[in-house]
Specification:
396 residues, alpha/beta, four-stranded antiparallel beta sheet, 16 strands, 28% helix, flat
């Protein structure tokens, strides 16, 4: 049987903290972790000061329950609790003597808002929010040395022939064009858009056009876009405005607001609206309206795919130059060219991917395959500043 790690809990006797600490200690002990708290002792014969010193010295881990009172007492701003002051002096001295290398003292919270009360000497280290079972599981894995994600053994280097591309295509397409040409000068515009509502903490009747324009300018700069943005809807409560952007832009803006990047414009919240699917539209450039109508008729003349057709058979092959259709050989050639732009994913391979979207619990990763990869946000806990567009390595 694996040796049990000894754990000591340092906390402040305030409000319901003692009850929560007792519940945590009981749970850890039942799950095989030797956890000690002062509530298990009535009167240590050596005296409380020596008892606290011994518990901290002999424990592999010390859980520091961060709360407002704990922080005040650790900073000597509250003289009513000498136990916390004594324990934090011992902890800080230990960290100092180890040149700030710390694996022993672990900040824990019983509610997320208490993260502001983590003492400065412990802010550089991982903390655990015990407000839900996921937080407890992460802490339990740490205390029992059961890491969820383990680095695989390093394999042999792949031997490549001269000129061979590791990812199986001539070059990686980091950016995809927003438009494509049909061959006759018409531009095919992707109109798949998504709505996002922004809540602005301001009096509706006093929210001026000038303030709106400043906000839209800041959003354009934030998203690095040049096209004109217009407000689709504006309503009370304080001020709620609706914009239409691409799904990727909506995600980027949503998380930028969460990070407080539009706080100067009083934007306090955002809400993603279910995206609208619309058919691509043709915009005229140098050709006539009749040419556009001719293409539309050609698309409608193309028969619908049958039950045994391939996924490519519903493509509008007749949309091209006037009077020109595609042969079977041309169709196959285009299919082959498309397949070459996709990489082959091999199991047990480490690949690079680009973060395409981030939501409350997951990350969407573009690894150059037909489908994007979906990963849990918790797997990137060591990258707190991870943002859309960043490149990361993942194990397939």
């Amino acid at each position: 049987m694996k040796e049990q790690s000894k754990v000591f809990v340092s906390y402040c006797h305030e409000q319901n903290i003692p009850e929560l600490v007792l519940e945590l200690a009981d749970k850890l002990n039942k799950n095989g972790v030797n956890c000690t708290i002062d509530q298990y002792e009535e009167n240590p014969q050596e005296g409380w000061q020596k008892w606290m010193d011994r518990q901290i010295r002999e424990s592999k881990y010390v859980l520091v329950v961060c709360s407002e009172k704990y922080l005040q007492r650790s900073q000597n701003n509250d003289s009513s609790g000498k136990g916390v002051q004594f324990e934090t002096v011992l902890a800080y001295q230990d960290i100092f003597q180890n040149y700030s290398m710390n694996d022993k003292y672990i900040p824990v919270l019983f509610k997320k808002a208490d993260s502001t009360y983590i003492p400065n000497p412990l802010k550089a280290y991982t903390y655990y929010n015990l407000d839900d079972e996921l937080g407890y599981e992460k802490l339990y894995r740490r205390l029992t040395d059961q890491q969820k994600i383990v680095k695989p053994d390093v394999g042999e280097i792949n031997k490549l022939s001269t000129g061979q591309n590791l990812i199986g295509r001539e070059e990686a397409d980091d950016e995809k064009p927003a438009t494509s040409s049909t061959g006759d000068g018409d531009v095919l515009v992707d109109t798949k858009m998504m709505g996002i509502e922004l809540k602005i903490d301001q009096d509706f009747d006093k929210y001026s056009v000038e303030e709106q324009e400043k906000l839209l300018g800041a959003i354009k700069q934030l998203l690095e876009i040049n096209r004109k943005l217009t407000i689709k809807q504006k309503r009370k409560g304080s001020v709620i405005i609706k914009l239409e952007l691409t799904p990727a832009e909506c995600e980027r803006l949503h998380w930028a607001i969460k990070r407080g990047e539009l706080d100067d414009f009083n934007v306090i919240d955002s809400k993603l609206i279910e995206e609208k699917d619309s058919e691509p539209k043709y915009e005229e450039s140098s050709t006539t309206t009749e040419a556009v109508e001719e293409k539309t008729e050609a698309v409608e003349a193309n028969p619908a795919p049958g039950p045994h057709d391939t996924p490519h058979d519903d493509f509008a092959w007749l949309v091209g130059k006037k009077g020109l259709s595609y042969t079977d050989e041309e169709r196959q050639s285009y299919r082959d060219q498309y397949e070459k732009t996709l990489r082959a994913v091999i199991e047990n391979e480490i690949v690079k991917g680009k973060v395409a979207a981030i939501n409350d619990g997951d990350i969407l990763l573009d690894i150059g395959f037909k489908s994007d990869g979906l990963l849990s946000l918790s797997e990137f806990r060591d990258l707190p500043d991870l943002a859309i567009g960043d490149e990361v390595e993942v194990y397939v």
